[in-house]
Design goal:
Order of helices and strands: HHHHHHHHEEHHHHHHHH
Number of helices: 16
Strand content: under 5%
Radius of gyration: 20 Å
Distance between the termini: 21 Å
Helix content: 55-70%
Length: about 400
């Protein structure tokens, strides 16, 4: 979701939750490129399997938590921004139409490109499915963003596996018109308590998942598939992260946020990644990162509200942040195509050559594809929506 969505933002001032105007939270647009960039880097090094040295290739899996924690940031960010910019006179239908246009245009293109490759060469081209045959029903489920509700790999890992997170967002959007009045009705004195409850409920999901057993999700991810589905893919299990973002918007609106030192909160997600060594593996997936991510997002948004200078508001960061959703949606498909037609399937290289291919081919081509997708698909779709609305 684009934070600068063209909607009139609600400017929340302490003690005046009904003031409206044209202010935005531009730093939250800028921060998105860091999250999307971490996902790209993790996937670029891990997914192609380009390293001939097995130990080095296995070591790239250490980057995976960077991607999973970034998804948590997207979920928290969505809840905060949608609540902050909610229009008082908006209807559920109007809200759903705007969300649909913004997410489905990019998704449809990435899905079509991935589907063409899967149909032509088999489902294994998505780099994570162990089999060859694709399930047409699973491909359709991925198009309509309902694949997460079926706990099998053939549904979860479709023509563009990253669409799983969009399926969660789609679920959040459906519930948002119901959740918004509930969050707005929370008494001010209970907002922080509600935020902590959302964090704890989220943490309970991977804890409960450890009670499940079964075959590993994938050979490269030795965690039971049932645990991964419950803690990572199931949209209902990821809802606390979205609600946490909504409550953060209220906390900011009511002036309850106390400034934090950015030098202290920025390392928190990395410290959380470090503690994964002593936790069950399933904690690397899902809402374990909700608290450190929420502190970063809340502080970044608070600095916009307080008018504190931030490099995230610079035009270059806004420019990149505007294209972050396109980058997130298309980079996995780009890697699939490169592995099929450029590197050739199963190709392995020495450390210098593999690293050079990742840095000079995979990442630049992904960035270029994101620019094209944003320029020729996302922007025209949003412009068409705005024209129709006028």
């Amino acid at each position: 979701m684009d934070i600068r969505d063209g909607d009139e933002a609600i400017v929340r001032q302490p003690g005046n939750a009904e003031t409206t105007g044209h202010a935005r939270l531009p730093s939250l647009t800028g921060i998105r490129i860091f999250a999307a960039g971490l996902v790209l880097v993790a996937h670029a090094f891990f997914l192609p399997g380009l390293y001939a040295d097995a130990a080095v290739q296995k070591g790239t899996s250490a980057l995976v938590p960077l991607a999973t924690s970034s998804v948590t940031l997207f979920f928290v960010l969505s809840g905060l921004v949608l609540t902050w910019s909610a229009r008082p006179a908006d209807t559920a239908r109007q809200f759903w139409r705007r969300r649909f246009v913004r997410i489905f245009s990019n998704h449809a293109v990435a899905w079509a490109l991935g589907t063409a490759l899967v149909i032509g060469y088999g489902i294994h081209v998505n780099l994570v499915s162990p089999g060859d045959e694709y399930n047409p029903l699973a491909v359709l489920a991925s198009l309509f963003l309902v694949q997460n509700w079926v706990p099998t790999n053939e549904f979860l890992l479709g023509p563009n596996p990253l669409a799983w997170s969009l399926a969660c967002e789609f679920f959040f959007y459906l519930l948002f018109p119901v959740l918004l009045p509930l969050v707005r009705g929370i008494p001010v004195r209970r907002l922080w308590l509600t935020a902590w409850v959302a964090v704890l409920v989220g943490l309970s999901v991977p804890a409960l998942a450890t009670l499940l057993h079964g075959p590993d999700f994938l050979p490269t991810i030795p965690v039971p598939g049932s645990q991964i589905w419950l803690a990572y893919f199931l949209p209902a299990a990821r809802l606390p992260e979205f609600v946490l973002g909504m409550v953060l918007a209220r906390i900011l609106a009511e002036g309850l946020w106390r400034p934090l030192h950015m030098g202290l909160v920025l390392p928190l997600p990395f410290l959380a990644i470090g503690t994964l060594a002593v936790l069950p593996p399933v904690f690397a997936f899902g809402p374990y990162f909700a608290l450190p991510v929420a502190l970063i997002v809340g502080e970044v948004a608070s600095r916009d509200v307080r008018g504190v200078p931030s490099f995230l508001r610079r035009p270059a960061m806004i420019y990149l942040g505007d294209r972050s959703f396109a980058l997130y949606m298309i980079h996995y498909v780009v890697i699939m195509y490169l592995c099929q037609f450029v590197f050739t399937p199963g190709a392995k290289f020495g450390i210098p050559a593999a690293t050079a291919l990742i840095l000079l081919v995979v990442i630049p081509v992904s960035l270029g594809a994101a620019w094209l997708l944003h320029r020729f698909v996302e922007r025209p779709a949003v412009t068409h929506l705005a024209t129709r609305r006028r």
